[in-house]
Amino acid sequence: MDTKAKILEQAWNLYRRRGFSHVTVNEICTASEITKPTFYNYFKNKEDTITHIYDDITEGIVGDVPQLILAANYYEQLRLCFQSLVKQSADIGVEIISQMFRINLEDDLGSFDFRERFSAVCIAITQRGQEAGQFFNTGKPRDLYEALCYAFSGYEVTWCIKNGDFDFEKEMDRAIQTIYMVDPKLYS
What we know:
Blueprint: H1 3-18, H2 25-32, H3 36-42, H4 53-62, H5 65-70, H6 74-92, H7 94-106, H8 116-131, H9 141-161, H10 168-180
Helix pairs in contact: 1-2, 4-6, 6-8, 6-10, 7-9, 8-9, 9-10
C-alpha cells in the first residue's frame, strides 16, 4: 500500500471511530506511522483527506459490473448505481458528508463533480433504457443523468440537514422514476 493510501485508510478509520471533528493531523500521522511533513506532502490539511471521497466510491460501483448486468431491467441497473451512492453516504456518515459540503462551499475542490466512468455507465444505461421503451422521457441521456445527479446532491444535503432522519433511498427511487418517466410496470 502506498503512503497516500495508508494515510487515507488510517484517517478514515479514525473518522469512523471518533468523528471527523475529534481527530487531529497528529493522530492521523501516528496511526499512519508517518511524520507531519510526510502528511503535508500529500494533503494540504485534514479536510483535504475527505475531498475526493467519491472517486473511490464511484470506481467501486462501476467495478461491480456483474451485479449491474444481472439486474432485471435498465431501471434496476440505474437504481443499483444510485442506491450504492446512497449506501456509501450512509456508511461515511452525516458528519463527514456535511464537512465535504462545507469545504466545497468555501472553495470548490471538485468533490461533487461528475466522475467520468460512473457517468459513462449511467448514460449508457439511460440510452439503452430509452431504446428499450423502459424510460419514457426522450430527453438527451446526459441531461437526464445530470438532472438525477443534481437531485442526488439535493437529497444528500437534505439528509445532512436532517441529521440522517430522511429516507434518502426512497427519495432517490422517486427521483429516478420521475425524471426518467420510468415505465410503472418496472416498479409497481
